[in-house]
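A note from the maintainers: we've had questions about how concatenated examples are separated. There is no special marker in the raw files; a new sequence line simply starts the next protein. For clarity in this README we add a label.
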Amino acid sequence: AIAATDITPGANTDAEVPIVYFENAGIATITVSSLEGASAGQYTLTLRSPLLIDFGQPVLGHIETGKSETRVFQGRRGQTINILLQEDGSGIDTYLELRDIKDNVLTSDDDGGPASNALIARYVLPGNDVYRVIARAFNDASAGSYKLTLTEVISQEITPGMVVTGLLENPTFWTVAATAGQPFRLTFSDP
């Protein structure tokens, strides 16, 4: 059975299958052939492990013209995450995709973050799975350096009469248990 294939028309004859996941352990066979089976010649085949991204540990990278960078992480059902892709002084217009193990695009973003950087915000993961973060330029003709950050969103509870203080470095999320029609007065101040 074919696990994955790449048939890319055009001048570039290189093929790439970004990430393949095997559902069962065992021996896999990789078949290499030309598009129509008529070409012959030398080739290079490279097998690499995917690049991991850990929660709270920003990674730096570089996106080449017309290419993307893929990172993977293990997520839990119901886990709320943020993914921020920031250009790192190069001026690249960042674009993010989050995909599941079957390569379905779950969500994407272009300019949702600060300074028109890509931000997938408060996304709730649908299952216990390995997820792929695809970082690329919105315009495939550009290239540049980036900083990619994956964080888990932790909400804290606030109750009526409670006063909290914090430091505005990263977004902080608060929850409040309310009933329909219940009024609240919320005050936010800069000390």
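[label: protein 2]
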Amino acid sequence: AYPRAAEDARRCLTDLQMSALRLLPRYHGYRLGEEVQASGCRGVMTVAADLARPVSITYEIEDDRQHHLLFRPCELAEEEIAAAILAFPEVNFVLERMRYSLARSVQRLAPDVTKWYVNISGRGMLGATVHLGIADLLDWIGPERVLLGTGMAMQYPRAPFLKLDSLSLDHDTLRKIKGENASRLLRLSTR
């Protein structure tokens, strides 16, 4: 464990004015389910809660098939994500670049916790079953907890907009997903 994790998180969010923290357990080689009990993780989550900043849990940066042959990302199970959400109910979590089935499992494992959001960028949400995935996601957690990310610079930024537009959602739902939810979560002014 890194002993200055909480101090560095606070510095990033205050001195460097970052809007959120990002966890990459698959790429940094740790098990999220085990880390939720560690003092370093608890310290970082306390900082995020104190400063009312979200914590992103990113499932994949790019398709695993594109990695170097010797690089093997760690597994990240839905139980581990749910364990983090349940262990820190005061923290807003953003699940990024995840398959909709993984988000559904997290919802099933932590049904009473509502301080987590899903960013619909990434291959898992933009595949052939997008209508089932995003439409079901909206039914499961509601439009107030769905965020539109472009995935830029790792994917073509227009794809998420086209997929959303193909769902024939009402104007209010689109407004929330395309910016209102993120503005509220990141405490940005909406002029």
